[in-house]
Amino acid sequence: MLLRSIYKTSVLLALLALSACSFQPVQPWERDILAQKKMQLEPYPLDAALDEHTYFSKEASRGGAGVGGGGCGCN
Amino acid sequence: MQLKTKPKPIRKTLAMATATLLGHVTHIGTANAESNPWEIDTAVMSYQENGRVSVLEPVIRMREDKGDDKFFTLKLVVDTLSGASPNGAIPTNSPQTFSGPSGSSSYPIAANTVPLDPNFHDTRYAINAEWEQPAGDARHSIYGLSFSTETDYQSLGASATYNFDFNNKNTTLTTGASFSGDSVQPLGGKPVAFAVVPASTGGGGGGGEDEGGGGGETSFHVNKRVVDLLLGVTQVMGRKDLIQLNFNYGKESGYLNDPYKLLSVVDNTGALITAVAPDSPYIYEKRPDSRNRTALYSRWSHQFGSDVLRLSYRYYSDSWGIRSNTLDMHYRLELGERFFLEPHLRSYKQTAADFYHTSLLNTEVATLDYASADYRLADMTTKTVGLKFGWLVGKHSEAGIRVETITQQAQPSRVIGIQSQQDLLPTVKATMVQLNYRFLF
After folding, report:
1. Which CA distances in Å does A54 have to B121, B154, B175, B387, B404?
2. Could you identify which of A61, B182, B224, B331 might form a hypothetical disulfide with B254, taking C-beta atoms 3.0 to 4.6 angstroms apart as the criterion?
3. ipTM
4. What is the fold of B37-440?
């Protein structure tokens, strides 16, 4: 299971790296849109943390977005 | 010459100037070491399930820009939980009575009703601190510490994340690791896995506060360890596109049971039957003492005009046999320069754990290594529909209100005989309301 997931990830990362080569790099002075807070991957960290806590308590899956954050009994 | 020898300050200045300018037009931006070093983010969440648990959770997050790309973040959470939670037993056509976790209180359950333990009241306090700093020209690191405590559970954790930028900061490689050491003190002592739950005495005698009855061990302190490793890449795909792909491996070990969850033991007609002792048809659950999990997570932010679409997808699998797919979508719709609406849709589907059993046949009790009737380990779907309304209150402050409905539907692993007359796993509906206020000073 672990090996298969690592394999899948490696393939995806390789594809991503290759596709990145085909994109024109964005220069720092062209980052007007990317610099906006709303364009961040997690523009509202509290919303994300509260959601993560809720679903961690109500579902059997966790993880993916980052590491750290703390534990919970969540019965 | 100057551009060649010292290009970075000019690029940085330009990027910062653009960001600052935009910050004042469409959003309040972020903390800035010179003018407004503190960014204060507050929220209060209310979560209410129909007839079950309710949660009130205020949070404050304070982030200080210390200058030179160094940031300190402190987050405090209070999580107040009350109400009733399923104890794992199945509804039956006659009334049932259960003893509470301490053995001293009991609660009756009416016929044809899902058994809910009404004794859940707890307050959890959590604190997180993070320090973020550059680690060379194109690297930065984030170190975190976390602590949380509630009546029967404490957690102490540490984490470290390193980000490496290259390709003119269009690509960022992220590596992260975290560890947490948790301590569990089940109320009434640690139940012996698969032991018969002591018969309810109806409050007329029996165990004291710290006595688990016939099924309890006198050990009040058990441990759990959680390790997570993360490898990810973030790629700028153009001026309006940002994507991220993460791989997360986690290992949990130690006491992974839920000490308050039971299993109903039935005969081949589906009726409750006393399993081992003559006085109770319920036994405590038993889960493996380790769990390996992997998650593949991707997300994408794209700007359409001034609106922003955020999509994420996660594939998850673990050594308990659970596989899940999660799709999440936010669409931020700008309403002029001061307001926005953000619909949110989330769809989640998981397969059951190998050892999930809605009920157990009495002939199976001696043959199984593990069993749990916790519906959160069943075949299950969750659907979330939400809407957020946000507005810029002033130059340096932003407020928001978010309302969501969450619907969960689990499927029984098996329906035996007369159990078909019961709704073994009714739909769980919850409503979440959250208020946000964020400001700089």
Report:
1. 17, 18, 26, 17, 12
2. B224
3. 0.88
4. Porin (2.40.160)
